């Protein structure tokens, strides 16, 4: 029988946020601002907080990580707790969380990548961009990823911001990367990389790229790296520029400017970035050891009158792109970590503006979802912030209607979690943070991340 301290908890709603990434922290920020009394527990699978900000943002984009300062101030409030190294569906069930909180918000993101479903996709050196990003950012899941950079040519399938992050990391001068928090093992591997030529392959045309102007501008300004476009890919694109929405217009103008400045002359010491369009991967070509040799690409064409409204369709033509390394960068999807969680076929929790109404039970906490788990993997951190605020607003409204609160929160949850699972609180994270920054100083970097969960726990509990 669980003993509950009713007098301590009376009339203070207790909210559990599962996932310590941007969506979770932004939602918690809104809740603390809009509710006079609320207690928030943020539960995270890893021993460390910040999710995508820590493991998804490129090392050479430190300004994007400044939001960590806001999140830290929030976590240091008396009514907010961080509990790391707790896995939903393994250490604690969704049902158990809903029994002991007044509201449960799921924000654990999208941690699997979408696949192409084509022949030889499991070949050696065909990698998910997500895993490569995790590798150079020190995610424990990807610490031992085998990345062979001994070949001359690589290809990235997809034309979003993650694809450009991967391209930039592979093509950037080493002196630039040395000043970032990229992991030392990744830095050493990239230092010996023989990659000189990198293709960015898109199914559709220049008017449909998913990367932003900031990412493209950084790429084409890289030192000792030439950007080479194919003129045939831009037929009639200039004619459509004036009819485009402003952000798309500016991005297209930048591509056209780069195309017109491009003389295709490449010096011996330069690397080459080659965006190509209207190509879809048909199959990966491998040798007898199942090591990647190239990609057979289907050639696509546009049909329709106005170029900005045309549809891209495959033709019977194909071509071979010879390469020894390929990255799949076509999007992410969420996974079902608990049997009671309703996901659709796209890996998104079935919800209505953040409320998971299909699981409502009178004696259980209402269930909510925010971030990529509820919207699908779209937008940047700013988009996630807007969504998290909107869902937090719904939680506030529902909690105010509820009125009576007598749940025990983490005190009761802690008694359920196996004693062999060490729970890492905020003070434990501060020890990890201090350790990483001190290790980074030795290497002239902002930090050197611990890439092993066991080591994180050891440092946190020291």
Structure write-up:
With 462 residues, the protein is an alpha/beta fold. The protein has 2 domains: 6-111 and 333-423, NAD(P)-binding Rossmann-like Domain (Rossmann fold), CATH 3.40.50.720; 115-330, FAD/NAD(P)-binding domain (3-Layer(bba) Sandwich). The protein is 34% helix and 18% strand. It contains 17 helices and 16 strands. Strand 1 (14-18), helix 2 (22-34) and strand 2 form a beta-alpha-beta unit. Helix 2 crosses helix 14 and helix 6 crosses helix 7. The protein starts with 5 loop residues before the first helix and ends with a helix.
Write a brief structural summary.
With 462 residues, the chain is an alpha/beta fold.
What general outline do the C-alpha atoms trace?
globular
**Architecture per CATH nomenclature, i.e. the level-2 architecture of the largest domain:** 3-Layer(bba) Sandwich
What is the domain total for the residues? 2
Helical run tally: 17
Spans with pLDDT under 50 lasting ≥5 residues?
A: 1-9
Give the N-terminus to C-terminus distance in angstroms: 33 Å
Mean pLDDT: 92
The neighbouring-strand order within the major sheet is 6-14-7-8-10-9
Record field, number of beta strands: 16
List strands and helices in order, with pairings:
Elements: H1 6-9, E1 14-18, H2 22-34, E2 39-43, H3 51-55, H4 67-75, E3 80-83, H5 94-100, E4 103-106, E5 112-113, E6 126-128, H6 129-137, E7 153-157, H7 161-171, H8 174-177, H9 184-191, E8 197-201, H10 213-220, E9 225-227, H11 237-240, H12 246-261, E10 271-276, E11 279-286, E12 292-303, E13 311-322, E14 325-328, E15 332-333, E16 366-369, H13 372-375, H14 381-402, H15 410-416, H16 426-442, H17 453-460
Parallel strand pairs: 1-2, 1-4, 2-3, 4-16, 6-14, 7-8, 7-14, 8-10, 9-10
Antiparallel strand pairs: 5-15, 11-12, 12-13
Helix pairs in contact: 2-14, 6-7, 7-10, 10-12, 16-17
């Amino acid at each position: 029988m669980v003993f509950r301290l009713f007098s301590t908890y009376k009339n203070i709603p207790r909210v559990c946020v599962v996932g310590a990434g941007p969506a979770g922290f932004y939602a918690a920020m809104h809740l603390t601002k809009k509710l006079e009394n609320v207690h928030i527990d943020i539960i995270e699978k890893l021993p460390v907080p910040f999710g995508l900000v820590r493991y998804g943002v490129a090392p050479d984009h430190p300004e994007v990580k400044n939001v960590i300062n806001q999140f830290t101030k929030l976590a240091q409030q008396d009514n907010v707790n961080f509990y790391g190294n707790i896995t939903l569906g393994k250490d604690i069930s969704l049902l158990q969380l809903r029994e002991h909180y007044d509201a449960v918000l799921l924000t654990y993101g999208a941690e699997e990548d979408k696949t192409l479903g084509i022949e030889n996709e499991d070949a050696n050196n065909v990698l998910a961009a997500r895993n490569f990003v995790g590798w150079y950012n020190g995610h424990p899941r990807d610490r031992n990823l085998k990345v062979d950079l001994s070949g001359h040519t690589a290809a990235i399938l997809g034309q979003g911001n993650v694809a450009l992050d991967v391209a930039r990391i592979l093509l950037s001068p080493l002196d630039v990367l040395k000043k970032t928090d990229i992991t030392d093992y990744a830095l050493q591997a990239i230092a010996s990389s023989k990659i000189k030529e990198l293709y960015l392959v898109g199914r559709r045309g220049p008017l449909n790229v998913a990367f932003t102007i900031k990412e493209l501008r950084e790429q084409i300004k890289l030192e000792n790296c030439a950007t080479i476009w194919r003129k045939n890919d831009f037929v009639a694109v200039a004619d459509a520029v004036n009819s485009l929405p402003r952000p798309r217009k500016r991005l297209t103008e930048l591509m056209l400017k780069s195309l017109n400045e491009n003389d295709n002359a490449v010096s011996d010491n330069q690397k080459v970035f080659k965006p190509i369009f209207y190509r879809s991967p048909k199959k990966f070509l491998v040798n007898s050891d199942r090591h990647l040799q190239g990609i057979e690409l289907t050639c696509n064409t546009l049909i329709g009158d106005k170029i900005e409204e045309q549809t891209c369709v495959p033709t019977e033509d194909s071509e071979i792109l010879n390469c020894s390394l390929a990255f799949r960068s076509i999007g992410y999807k969420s996974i079902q970590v608990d049997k009671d969680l309703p996901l659709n076929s796209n890996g998104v929790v079935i919800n209505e503006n953040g409320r998971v109404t299909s699981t409502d039970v009178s004696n259980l906490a209402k269930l909510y979802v925010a971030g990529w788990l509820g919207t699908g993997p779209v937008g940047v951190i700013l988009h996630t912030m807007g969504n998290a605020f909107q869902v937090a607003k719904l939680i506030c409204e529902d909690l105010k209607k509820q009125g009576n609160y007598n749940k025990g929160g983490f005190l009761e949850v802690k008694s359920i979690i196996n004693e062999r699972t060490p729970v890492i609180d905020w003070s434990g994270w501060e020890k990890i943070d201090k350790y990483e920054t001190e290790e980074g100083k030795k290497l002239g970097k902002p930090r050197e991340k611990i890439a092993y969960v066991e080591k994180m726990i050891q440092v946190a509990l020291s």
